[in-house]
Amino acid sequence: MQHVDFKPRGVCSRMIHIDLSDDGKTIEDVGFDGGCSGNLAAISKLVSGRPTEEVAQILKGNTCGPRKTSCADQFSQALLQAMEQIQATGTVQAE
Asked: Which residues form a coiled coil (predicted)?
């Protein structure tokens, strides 16, 4: 399993914790510190077991109110970064 801790920017959540399959192609689990707990808990349930790339593309660009990003968009950015690192090195590098 690959584990990612991602510090989002411009949103209410303070940290996103992601567990991916060893090859990074499947989301095993995700948790958010802070943010809108009900919505983020729902996102976590909806994405568990889903393909990483599919989820990243669906959530990419989602906004929250007047912000140019959202917790979902930041989650997609974390997934895209993790996939890039796994393809390049075989593992996610700690930040």
From this structure: none
From residue 59, alpha-carbon distances to 9, 65, 94 in Å are 16, 15, 23
Element (H, E) at 57: helix 52-59
Determine the Cα–Cα distance for residues 66 and 39; give it in Å rounded to an integer: 18
Decide yes or no: CATH 3.30.390 for domain 2-89: yes
Give pLDDT tens digits for 52-83: 999 999 999 999 999 999 999 999 999 999 99
**pTM given for the model:** 0.93
Q: How far is CA 13 from the centre of its chain?
A: 12
Task: Give the domain ranges of the chain.
Answer: 2-89
Please give the Cα distance from 6 to 3 (Å, whole number). Answer: 10
Distance CA 86, CA 76 (A): 15
